[in-house]
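User: Please look over both lines:
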Amino acid sequence: MRRVLAAPAVVVLGLVASAAASANPQPWQLNMTPGASQTSREVYDIHMLVLWICVAIGVAVFGVMFVAMFRFRKSKGAVPATWSHSTKLEAIWTIIPVLILIACAWPATNLLIRMADTSASEMTIKITGYQWKWRYEYVDYFGKQPGINFVSSLESQANRTRQLGSGMDPRDIKVGDQATYLLDVDKPLVLPVGVKVRFIITADDVIHSWWVPSLGWKQDAIPGIINSAWTRIDEPGIYRGQCAELCGRDHGFMPIVIKALPKAEFEQWMTTQAPAPAAVATATPLAPTTAPQG
């Protein structure tokens, strides 16, 4: 009975830990992280720009409101205003928000255009979402076809633990200081550092969404539709993500792990993963036959 009651609690704890670890948080962290690519850092910069604009607007609005509440009140002899309309004031508080929106929209639109531009990519990866795993196909690498193709699923030990609900404390499953329960896979997606990688993303059954926070974007994987995105990772490391679209019963158990390697190490890995060339069948020529005479 205790195991039956403990199972849901362990699963919930694991999901909470997974959601927190996906963004690699630090103690008392209250803000986003810059990420691992130029795109993610630009997203962070625009976020900070809009945040400080909102802070300034909040200070101005609440400042005026509190001044009006405490300085101009009846107990201090204030009387109701004798005017009810000011065209100049309404023009000011209409024009200023429009200018603020333009100031926010201009860099955001430019960034969205650059994020959608997959041209001049040096590598292409096809990602296919399944219930509940991902398939990665290395389509192109500097004009070569590596032929690497594998399925990436939730790591088997974590999968057994979340199904049984006992036998392991999720807080004990760690890599360094980051809890990775339900965020490990059997085969990570290995990518080179400093290379522009184009992703073509689709699905085979239902809608999924491929999301790695450190890359600064996410992209839906839709059956019958090909979506595209790109990244260029600047630093070697392990970057984690999850499916961000409710795709069925085990939606919370299809993590994403990217292992970014220096270019030389990546090429060595690619050599070890490349499929063996198919054996060429050799046929023994038949001896010529002589047609019977007469």
